[in-house]
Write a structure and sequence with these properties.
Strand content: 15-25%
Helix content: 25-40%
CATH architecture of the largest domain: 4-Layer Sandwich
Number of helices: 11
Distance between the termini: 98 Å
CATH topology of the largest domain: Deoxyribonuclease I, Chain A
Number of strands: 16
Order of helices and strands: HHHHHHEHEHEEEEEEEEEHEHEHEEE
Oligomer: single chain
Radius of gyration: 28 Å
Length: 344
């Protein structure tokens, strides 16, 4: 009787194996079939990084994704851990896509300060309306040794403090509305940045000028054209999503002004309220280079000052060579000052 029972058990086990039933499933699926969800997530992440420019900008979604694009790399180690835990070969292979794309976008950024040598040091800083100590901020910026100091968010109440504290170090000063440039070198031809001729109106409505100025710096190597700009704000609207219309319109105006610029040497400094990965700045990045991308210290995130997550303060160049770019210590502002050295 026992022999019959054993034989029946063996036959049942073999039958289950042949039909792919319980006994065959004891070992689970193979490494290429494990973790289908992880594999799909890895592929989607890679495609998002690769094709971020194709993400719809409905309700500002595309702009929001591109603003924080580097941070999507944080999903990679999570997916790697999941692939190791599941021992999924398919997930591991799929992860090659996001790793490769992220590295091509951001992995080449320098990890530390580069050569500090250069012919001119420039600093840009949104000093913030709510800054509790404008005089202290001015002294800190003057102590940086910058030759050119571009400030944004100046107010009628704070201008006097900056003018007083910076006058000794920077004898030359240009101002237009809420933006200003302090310089150790002579300035000339300062004017507001107006819409290009023929585009002063849109649909019969006057186009608002930028919060920006253009001026010329007299250097030993010849004239250097400098733009200082504070582009429109962005807002997260409860019903409208990520609102960027004002910022995007200003970016277009600034790009058109730079395109019409005849000077061979150009600096564009200021608070862009967006990162250069954002499609809104394609018109600028096609003409200018980011000092941070060329010679910077890591990502150079500048906002918010307490825990920076995005670089929205920019130093862009044309016709000169950035040799280094870095962040200055915090001031009383909610932005970190950004600095760069350039050579001819």
């Amino acid at each position: 009787m026992a022999e019959v029972d054993i034989a029946e058990t063996v036959r049942g086990s073999q039958s289950a194996d042949d039909e792919g039933h319980p006994s065959a499933g004891l070992s689970g699926p193979g490494p290429w079939r494990r973790g289908p969800v992880l594999t799909a997530c890895a592929l989607l992440l890679g495609l998002l990084l690769l094709l971020h420019g194709e993400v719809t900008d409905w309700a500002g979604l595309g702009s929001l994704v591109e603003t924080f694009l580097p941070w999507f790399g944080l999903f990679i180690p999570v997916l790697v851990a999941g692939a190791l835990w599941r021992r999924s070969a398919s997930s591991a292979v799929a992860l090659l896509l996001p790793v490769t794309v992220w590295w091509s976008l951001f992995g080449g950024l320098p990890g530390g300060p580069t050569d500090q040598a250069g012919d001119l040091m420039v600093v840009s800083h949104n000093v913030a309306v709510e800054n509790p100590d404008p005089a202290g901020t001015a002294r800190d910026l003057a102590a940086s040794g910058a030759d050119l100091l571009a400030l944004q968010e100046l107010t009628d109440q704070t201008k006097a403090s900056y003018e007083k504290e910076l006058a000794k170090t920077y004898p030359h000063y240009a101002e237009e509305g809420t933006v200003g440039l302090w310089s150790k070198l002579p300035l000339s031809g300062t004017r507001p940045v107006e819409p290009p001729v023929g585009k002063a109106q849109q649909d019969g409505i006057p186009v608002q000028p930028l919060r920006a100025l253009r001026t010329t710096v007299a250097t030993e190597e010849g004239p250097l054209t400098v733009y200082v700009a504070h582009l429109g704000s962005v807002r997260v609207m409860p019903r409208g999503g990520f609102w960027t219309e004002s910022r995007d319109a200003d970016a277009t105006k600034l790009a058109e002004a730079v395109a019409a610029e005849r000077s061979k040497r150009v600096l564009v400094l200021g608070d862009f309220n967006g990162t250069l990965d954002d499609r809104a700045f394609d018109g600028l990045t096609s003409q200018l280079r980011s000092s941070q991308d060329v010679a910077g210290d890591g990502f150079g995130f500048s906002w918010p000052a307490k825990f920076p997550v995005a670089r929205i303060d920019q130093i862009l160049v044309r016709g000169v060579e950035p040799t280094s770019a870095w962040l200055l210590p915090r001031t009383g502002s909610d932005h970190r000052p950004v600095a760069a050295r350039i050579s001819w």
